[in-house]
Amino acid sequence: MDTGILMAFDYGLKKTGIAVTDPLQTIASALTTIPTPSLKDYVASYTQTHQVTGFVVGYPLQKDGTPSTIMPHIMGFARHLKGCYPHIPVYQQDERYTSKMAAQTLLAAGIKKMKRRDKTLLDKISASILLQSFLDTKTKTSL
Fold it and tell me: Which fold has domain 5-136?
């Protein structure tokens, strides 16, 4: 997993934020937020035109470390990725507080209040924070 694009997902029941790395995997960038029902088709299209060498799926845990209620949906999506792209590893990354960090980032960047309320912007920024956190860790656990 030294070169090639990593693609990360801040999975939600309605919308999913997506972020990607540069091919050298040094920096994460927000890509888009799409309706979750379109996610599988989006990933299929993206992987046909870009060299994706890893998927990073955010795992929302409670403060006490227990899985959140959305976890079964996220596990289903991760299984889908592993089944459709067996040559591409799927990694997990704790995503606790990424939405809060994204909101703080938007505030610090001077984004106006109405724009900060746009959940699609928050979701893709959360995905980029999730992915950058993954890049910053030394131990990466494959599913």
Answer: Nucleotidyltransferase; domain 5 (3.30.420)
